[in-house]
Amino acid sequence: MKLKALILLFFLTYFNLNAAETISIAASPVPHAQILEQIKPELEKQGYKLEIKEFTDYVLPNLAVNANEIDANFFQHEPYLKEFNNIKKTKLVKVATIHIEPMAVYSKKYKDFNNIKEGIKIAIPNDPTNESRALDLIGKTGLVSFKDSALKTPLDIIDNPKKIKFIELKAAQLPRALSDVDFAVINSNYALSAGLNPLKDSVLIEDKNNPYANIIVVKEGNENNPKIKALIQALQSDKIKQFILEKYNGSIIPAF
């Protein structure tokens, strides 16, 4: 019996030591989860199993990482992260920059902003940083002007001769609202999920040189965890850079 117990203990110890360590990461389905799928084989070679948990909102992924329920997340840009930390009193930090998703304006009724009717409706994201980002994009058309503000809202409008009405919605709802408004300013991850290509289907697209690169985020104190280092190395590789360029045809751009 002692021999059998020793043999059983040996096998349990051996397989436990050689079991792959799990890296859990929260991500938006497109393009974040798609990109993460590409690094699974590389991480497996290093003894890590990548577990991707898909979310379709911008709040739960941060709360889960802050609670140490998930190791990292990949869905947001740094201005959003800073605002989230400030409002929710979370302790989340950026550890890597991966890609840029230019925000764009879409319409089923107009091909551009020329000859628009008075009182048109434009749907925009309702979270502070993306709302301000969307209004900056509309402001570049000259149709609306705003007072100087770090985070713009429709309350900051100082000139609106066309009496444009801004409809504030959750970012994930914007593609579905496109038929009910004249224009919608949509984050690229939600646009791509809805079959919209920012380069081909938009009437206006954000400049690629902007501070809104998408990042990997962890709980403060976990920045130097070996599995986080392995995750970053796998993502910031030539293979992933090439995948992004070929898969998304310029609508998403590597930022590393």
Verbal overview:
It is a lipid-anchor. InterPro entries: Lipoprotein_NlpA. It is found in: Membrane. Pfam families: Lipoprotein_9. The structure is a single chain. The chain is built from 11 helices and 13 strands. It is an alpha/beta fold. It has 2 domains: 2-101 and 211-254, Periplasmic binding protein-like II (D-Maltodextrin-Binding Protein, domain 2), CATH 3.40.190.10; 104-205, 3-Layer(aba) Sandwich (D-Maltodextrin-Binding Protein, domain 2). The termini are far apart. Mean pLDDT is 93; it is low at 11-17.
Major beta sheet, strand line-up? 2-1-3-12-4-13
- CATH architecture level-2 label of the largest domain: 3-Layer(aba) Sandwich
Structural domain count: 2
Helix/sheet category: alpha/beta
Count of strand segments: 13
Q: Name the shape in a single word.
A: globular
N-to-C SSE series?
HEHHEHEHEEEHEEEHEHHEEHHE
CATH superfamily of the largest domain: Periplasmic binding protein-like II
What's the average pLDDT?
93
- Low-pLDDT stretches: 11-17
Largest sheet: 6 strands, mixed
Please tell me how large the radius of gyration is.
22 Å
Secondary structure: helix percent: 25-40%
Quaternary structure type: single chain
> Regarding CATH, which class of the largest domain?
Alpha Beta
Beta content comes to 15-25%
- CATH fold group of the largest domain: D-Maltodextrin-Binding Protein, domain 2
Number of helices: 11
List the main descriptive attributes of the protein structure presented here.
palmitate; D-Maltodextrin-Binding Protein, domain 2; globular; 5-stranded mixed sheet; single chain; alpha/beta; 6-stranded mixed sheet; 256 residues; 13 strands; membrane
